[in-house]
Amino acid sequence: MSTFNRRKFLGTAAAAAGSAAILSATGTSAFAQDRRIRHFWWGNPERDKRTFEVIRLFNEKNPGIVVAGETLGSADYFTRLTTQIAGRNMADAIQMGYGVMFEYINRGAILPLDEYIGKSLDISQIDESALSAGRVDGKLYALSIGANSHVSLYNTRLFDAAGISFDPFGWTYDDLKRVAGEVTKATGVFGTDDNTADYQNFSDYVHQRGERLFDDEGNFGASAETIADYFAIWADLRAAGATPPGQVSAGLVGAELSNWGIVTGQTAISYAWSNQMVGVQNLMQDKVGAAMFPNTPEMIPGSIIQPSQFICLSRDTVDAEAATTYMSAFVNDPEMTAVLGLERGIPANAQVRAALQPKLTEIEATSVAFFDGIQGKTMNLAPPPPSGAQEIEAMFERVAVAVLLDQAPIPDVANQIRREAEGIRRRAR
């Protein structure tokens, strides 16, 4: 089998294997000259298709290196990664999120990239803001795959039917109450998802109130009063009939994108990351619009900009030079980045953004326009959360369900969240 044909076969096998693609299983002594590395990411059908195509392109362009692709859904990804860390068999290149990056660096699971810069890793065209987000204690640990922001996605047909007029970059929580109520009254569709148990919206709200989710020492910084006030916003909307009933929303906590209210037609507004706009639109016939998370009445911003995901070098890499060569191509190679598009967010490479612009679909252009529109209107990005932050997020979602089910008074739930968060941080130190 020729090198070209063998590589074509391997790339095709990866795409066909779907969520459990592990190309190293094809290894034989005949292919012993190849340097083999693995890339593991959390994905969905669209992301997986694009990423396997990128792997196929890289394998064809780089004789001597063979990349194997492995993917799982986001709900299972970190569980599998934890198992791999314990077994010391992580993939060479792994996908990572800003919210949990520090925890994995602290565990020694991710290696710094500095010694490969200017050699197998080219960062010369990457935005400095993206590089800064991937640095911890002066070392570059993470390469941004794309920029991202929290976004309120709305069904433009329903908004038009209700005669809604609002500023998508300057609306407030008071505007949300008005808009959601008007949509519900005019269309019979609930105006908005209920974000009571949405940790991302909650974390933004904490900063809008002038507090920090975690202070410089890593202490949980959200006061019980702020937690209760956040719950009260959504309780008011729920009482007004502008959201689905609490029991319905409780069953959707952590739901996959295909079950979101805007996708199923149950609500007119769902809340997401901006890189998820393409996936949402692909599941809908109605056109999707984009707005910031609501501002406070004092116009303190309700959205942030941060890397959507990173690609990182794992502690268990078998060939760091080959892995960083692949990582470099993943964010810089014009042919590969054209396949990736905006599915993981707005690319951090200015040349890549310019090359993609003429080829954008309508929803991708909407995503870029939203990203352009929020410049200068967002909160500053907080430092990466400390160890235990992922457990605190899961705890918040679990405990907040008690509010949706009306099982406990809001002040009691707010105090419980504070106590449990403080306990998690003590154990994680």
Query: How is the main sheet built?
Result: 8 strands, mixed
- The CATH architecture of the largest domain: 3-Layer(aba) Sandwich
What is the domain total for the residues? Answer: 2
Average pLDDT across residues?
90
Assign the CATH class of the largest domain. Alpha Beta
Task: Give structural attributes.
single chain; 429 residues; alpha+beta; D-Maltodextrin-Binding Protein, domain 2; 2 domains; 8-stranded mixed beta sheet; two-stranded antiparallel sheet; 14% strand; globular
Topology of helices and strands:
Blueprint (H helix, E strand, L loop, with lengths): L2 H15 L17 E9 L1 H17 L3 E9 H14 L5 E4 L1 H9 L3 E2 L16 H6 L1 E2 L2 E2 L1 E14 H6 L11 H15 L11 H10 L15 H16 L6 H5 L10 H4 L4 E5 L3 H6 L5 E4 L13 E10 L5 H13 L1 H7 L9 H7 L5 H12 L15 H16 L5 H19 L1
Parallel strand pairs: 1-2, 1-3
Antiparallel strand pairs: 3-10, 4-10, 5-6, 7-8, 7-9, 7-10
Structure description:
It is found in: Periplasm. With 429 residues, this protein is of the alpha+beta class. The protein has 2 domains: 3-146 and 308-368, 3-Layer(aba) Sandwich (D-Maltodextrin-Binding Protein, domain 2), CATH 3.40.190.10; 149-305 and 376-428, Periplasmic binding protein-like II (D-Maltodextrin-Binding Protein, domain 2, 3-Layer(aba) Sandwich), CATH 3.40.190. The protein is built from 18 helices and 10 strands. The strands form 2 sheets. Strands 1, 2, 3, 4, 7, 8, 9 and 10 form an 8-stranded mixed sheet that branches. Strands 5-6 form a two-stranded antiparallel sheet. Helix 1 (3-17) packs antiparallel against helix 2 and helix 17 (389-404) runs antiparallel to helix 18 (410-428). The relative contact order is 0.17. Residues 1-31 have low confidence and may be disordered.
